[in-house]
Write a structure and sequence with these properties.
single chain, mainly beta, 22-stranded antiparallel barrel, 38 strands, globular, transmembrane beta strand, transport, siderophore uptake transmembrane transporter activity, receptor, transmembrane
Length: 781
C-alpha cells in the first residue's frame, strides 16, 4: 500500500510540473460526423512509408516492393488493447499468438512463421525498433511487450521480408514503432478502467507546446489477479519526451521507465484442463522486468533535398525470474536412488521402465530393483542484468538522375550489449492447492550458471529507390553487418564457457514496383538477412559434451550464422467504392540455411545445438480495408506453410531415440490458416459499436516435429467493443472478449505429467482466456 501511495505522489508531481508549461489548446470541435470529438490526435492516411530505422525523406508507399501493414493510434484508441502484441494478433494478416505463458504481456508472436518472444532461448526471427533504437533485448534478442506503454504509440509499421536495412534477426520482418510527442496531442487525457480478472488500470497522457518546444508524458498503472489460479500481474509504465522543433531542425529526448511483475504459469495437461480450466500445472512462474531507457534523436534538413538524422541511446534492463517446477526423474524403487546409465548420465525418462538391472546409482553402485518415474519439486531463479548503448547516423537525399526521381539513404549503426546472467536452483516440496500444485523451498539455492557476455554489433546500410519510368521504380538495398560476441565464466569453475566469436555478412535486396493501372500496383522483391547464434546456443554446441537441457551452459564451439532469403510478389491498390477500398494480395517464401536446432546425439537423450541444412516459411496474404458512410471495416487472411527442408533427428524430452524429422514435415506452433475481420459503425455522431472475429486453424504440438500427434483444435473467437461520448470531453468505452465463451487452446507441447498415476507422456496445452469484459472512462481537458 505504501508503494502505491508513493507512486501516486510521484505521478502527481509530474503532472504538476507539466501543468506549468503553456499549452496550445484546440478551441473548436473539428471532428467529422461519426468521429469522436475527443480525438485531437489523428494521423491522416499514410501515403509515405518510413522504410529505414530512423526518420528519412521516405518513399511513397506505392513504390515500396512489399506488403507493408500498419497500425495507427486511431485504431489503438478505438480498440483499447492491453499491449502491442494484442493489436498485431487482432488486426494483421500472417500474425498469430501462442499464449505459452498464459499472460497477455508474455505472448509468443509469430509473423509469417517467424518469432518475437520474451522467453530467452527462443529462435527470434523478427527485429523490433522503437523510435530508431533496436529494441530487441541484448542477451537473447527477445522482445518484452510490457516495456512500452501502448498509450505512447503513434504508429507501427510491419516491414515484411528479410529487409537487410533493419539488421540482425530480420529474417521474416521488422516492427518499426514510432511514439507520440507534444505536437501530436495538446491537452490532457485521463482514463480509468476495470472489470474481469480483477483488472483495474489508471492511465493518463499530457501534451503541450510552447513555441518550438513540446512536451509529452504518459503513464499507466495496472493490477490484475489473472484468469488462471495464482496468476497476478502488476504493471507500472512511464514514457516522457521533450523536444525542440523548427522548420529545419528536430531534436527530442525520450525517457522510458518500467517496473513490472508478471506471472505466467504456462502449459497444463489436458487431463487437468478437463477438470478445471483455471488450474495450473505448477506455480509460481514469476518474471520481474525493470528498465530505464534514454533515447536522444535529432534530424537536420540541410537542404530541401538532404536530411541528416541520428540517435544515441542507453538502456539498463534487469530481469529476474522464479520458477517452481516439478522435476521428473528415474529412480530405483528398492533404494530410491536416482538412476544413471553406464556412461554416468541420468537415464532418459523414456527408458525408465522394467528392471533396474544393468543400471547404477549416482555413486556407481549397481541396482537390482525396478525402474519407476518420480516427481520432486525444484525452485529455479535467474537474474539477467544488461547495459545497452549505441547509436545510428543516417543521411537521406531526394533528387533526380537523368530527369527521374531518386531517393537515397545511407546509414551507420553501432550498439553494444553487456550482460550478466546468473541461474540458481534449490530443492523444494510440492504442495497441492486444489487442482494446482505449488512449490515451497526446502534447501538453499546453489549457483548453476554464472556468465558474462558482451556483444558488439556494427552495420553500414544503404537503400536507393530510382524511378526507371513514370510507373516503374527500382529499389536496391544492402547492409554489411559485423557481430562480435565474448562469453566469460564468472564462477571460476567452468573455463570451457569462455569464448570469442565473430560473424559478418553483406546482405543485399532488390525490388520492383509497377503501377499497372491508375489504382493498382504490382510489386516484386528479393531480400536477404541473417542472425548470429545467441550465447545460449554457443554454450551448448559441443557434440562431445552434450547438454541434457538446451539451457545447460557447458562449452562454446562455433555455430554458423542463420541466413534468410525471401522472395515476395503481389499487388495492391484502391477501389473507388465508398470512401475508397484498399486491397492487397501477395505471395512470400523465406528459405533459411544453417537454421539452428537442438539435435539428439545419443539414445540417452542428451543433445546439442547445431546447424541443419534448411527450413522454409511460405504463404499467401490477402487483405481489404475501407470506409463506407458510417462504417469502417477490414478483413485479412493468411496461409502460412512452415516446413523442415532436410532430414534430421531432434532431441526429445519424451522419446529416447529423438524425433525423426523428414523433409516436408510441418514446424510445430505455426497454424496454416488465420483470418481476421472487423468493423466499427457509428450509430450516432457520438456512439460507435464494433467488433472483430479471429479464426485460426490448429497447429502441431512442440516436441512433435515429426507430425505424429494430432494438432490442437481450430478455433474462432468474437470480440465486441463500444464507445459513447455523452459530452464533448467525456468518453465511456466497453469491450467484451470471447463473447461466446469458446474453449480453445493456442499451442501445445508433449511432456511427462508429473502428477499422473502413473507418470506418463501427456499432451500439455495453453488454454485461451474465457469470456471477459471491461468498462473504462476517458476524460479530456
Amino acid at each position: 500500500m505504501r508503494v502505491r501511495v508513493l507512486w501516486y505522489v510521484a505521478i502527481g508531481l509530474i503532472w504538476l510540473v507539466a501543468g506549468m508549461m503553456p499549452r496550445a489548446w484546440a478551441e473548436t470541435d473539428q471532428s467529422e460526423p461519426g468521429e469522436s470529438p475527443l480525438k485531437a490526435f489523428e494521423l491522416p492516411a499514410v501515403e509515405v512509408i518510413e522504410h529505414t530505422p530512423l526518420s528519412a525523406l521516405g518513399i511513397p508507399i506505392g513504390k515500396y516492393p512489399g506488403n507493408v501493414q500498419e497500425i495507427t493510434s486511431e485504431e489503438i484508441e478505438s480498440q483499447n488493447p492491453l499491449d502491442i502484441s494484442e493489436m498485431f494478433y487482432r488486426n494483421l494478416s500472417s500474425v498469430n499468438i501462442n499464449a505459452a505463458q498464459n499472460n497477455p504481456w508474455q505472448n509468443d508472436v509469430t509473423y509469417r512463421g517467424f518469432l518475437a518472444s520474451p522467453l530467452t532461448g527462443s529462435p527470434i526471427g523478427l527485429s523490433v525498433y522503437l523510435d530508431g533504437m533496436r529494441f530487441n533485448d541484448g542477451f537473447g534478442e527477445t522482445m518484452n511487450w510490457d516495456l512500452t506503454p501502448q498509450s505512447a504509440i503513434a504508429e507501427i509499421d510491419v516491414i515484411p521480408g528479410s529487409n537487410p536495412v533493419f539488421g540482425l534477426n530480420t529474417l521474416g520482418g521488422a516492427l518499426n514503432i514510432r511514439t507520440k510527442r507534444g505536437f501530436d496531442l495538446q491537452g490532457t487525457e485521463v482514463e480509468a478502467s476495470g472489470g474481469s480478472f480483477g483488472r483495474w488500470a489508471v492511465e493518463a497522457e499530457h501534451g503541450a507546446v510552447h513555441g518550438p518546444f513540446d512536451l509529452y508524458l504518459t503513464f499507466n498503472t495496472l493490477d490484475e489477479s489473472g484468469w488462471r489460479e495464482h496468476s497476478p500481474s502488476e504493471l507500472r509504465q512511464l514514457f516522457s519526451r521533450i523536444g525542440w522543433k523548427t522548420e529545419r531542425t528536430d531534436l527530442n529526448l525520450n525517457y522510458i521507465w518500467a517496473d513490472n511483475d508478471l506471472i505466467g504459469n504456462g502449459f497444463v495437461p489436458e487431463s487437468t484442463l478437463a477438470r478445471d480450466r483455471d488450474a495450473v500445472h505448477t506455480f509460481p512462474d514469476r518474471t520481474g522486468n525493470r528498465m530505464h531507457l534514454l533515447n536522444l534523436r535529432g534530424s537536420r534538413r540541410i537542404t530541401d533535398a538532404l536530411l541528416l538524422s541520428g540517435n544515441g541511446f542507453y538502456r539498463y534492463y534487469k530481469r529476474k525470474t522464479l520458477n517452481g517446477d516439478a522435476e521428473v526423474g528415474c529412480v530405483d524403487d528398492a533404494t530410491g536412488a536416482g538412476v544413471v546409465d553406464a556412461g554416468g548420465r541420468p537415464l532418459h525418462l523414456g527408458l525408465c521402465e522394467g528392471s533396474a538391472v544393468g543400471f547404477f546409482d549416482e555413486d556407481g553402485n549397481p541396482l537390482a530393483g525396478a525402474l519407476e518415474r518420480e516427481a520432486e519439486g525444484e525452485d529455479r531463479t535467474t537474474r539477467t542484468r544488461t547495459h545497452d548503448f549505441g547509436g545510428t547516423f543516417q543521411l537521406s537525399h531526394s533528387g533526380a538522375i537523368m530527369g527521374r526521381t531518386n531517393r537515397l539513404t545511407v546509414g551507420f549503426a553501432f550498439d553494444r550489449h553487456q550482460s550478466h546472467y546468473n541461474q540458481r536452483e534449490a530443492e523444494s516440496e510440492l504442495v497441492p492447492d486444489g487442482n494446482s500444485v505449488g512449490t515451497e523451498r526446502e534447501g538453499p539455492f546453489e549457483t548453476e550458471v554464472n556468465v558474462g557476455t558482451r556483444q558488439d554489433n556494427a552495420g553500414f546500410y544503404i537503400t536507393n529507390t530510382f524511378d526507371l519510368a513514370e510507373r516503374l521504380a527500382l529499389t536496391l538495398s544492402g547492409r554489411y553487418q559485423h557481430v562480435d560476441i565474448n562469453i566469460r565464466d564468472r564462477s571460476g569453475e567452468n573455463d570451457d564457457l569462455n569464448g570469442h566469436h565473430t560473424f559478418e555478412r553483406f546482405s543485399p535486396a532488390v525490388g520492383l514496383t509497377f503501377q499497372a493501372l491508375k489504382n493498382a500496383t504490382l510489386f516484386f522483391s528479393y531480400s536477404e538477412g541473417f542472425r548470429a547464434p545467441t550465447p545460449a546456443e554457443l554454450t551448448c554446441a559441443d557434440e562431445n559434451d552434450p547438454c541434457n537441457l538446451p539451457n545447460a551452459f557447458v562449452a562454446d564451439p562455433p555455430l554458423n550464422k542463420v541466413v534468410a532469403r525471401t522472395y515476395e510478389f503481389g499487388a495492391r491498390g484502391r477501389l473507388p467504392i465508398g470512401n475508397g477500398v484498399r486491397w492487397n494480395a501477395g505471395f512470400f517464401r523465406t528459405d533459411l540455411s544453417n537454421d539452428i536446432l537442438f539435435t539428439v546425439v545419443e539414445t540417452g537423450g542428451a543433445g546439442f545445438f547445431q546447424n541443419v541444412d534448411a527450413t522454409r516459411r511460405q504463404g499467401v496474404e490477402v487483405g481489404v480495408q475501407g470506409r463506407w458512410k458510417r462504417l469502417k471495416y477490414f478483413g485479412n487472411y493468411a496461409y502460412v506453410d512452415a516446413t523442415y527442408q532436410s532430414d534430421v533427428t531432434l532431441a526429445s524430452v519424451t522419446d529416447p531415440g529423438g524425433v525423426r524429422v523428414k523433409d516436408g514435415d510441418v514446424i510445430p506452433g505455426i497454424p496454416k490458416h488465420n483470418a481476421k475481420v472487423g468493423a466499427e459503425y457509428a450509430l450516432l455522431d457520438n456512439l460507435w459499436i464494433g467488433g472483430n472475429v479471429i479464426a485460426v486453424s490448429g497447429n502441431y504440438l512442440r516436441g512433435d516435429d515429426g507430425n505424429n500427434q494430432s494438432k490442437t483444435d481450430a478455433y474462432a473467437i468474437l470480440n465486441l467493443h463500444a464507445r459513447y461520448v455523452p459530452i464533448k470531453n467525456l468518453e465511456i468505452w466497453t469491450r467484451i472478449d470471447n463473447v461466446t465463451d469458446t474453449d480453445y487452446e493456442t499451442a501445445g507441447t508433449l511432456n511427462f505429467n508429473a502428477f499422473g498415476s502413473p507418470i506418463a507422456v501427456e499432451r500439455f496445452v495453453a488454454p485461451g482466456s474465457p469470456v471477459a469484459g471491461w468498462v473504462g472512462v476517458k476524460l479530456r481537458f
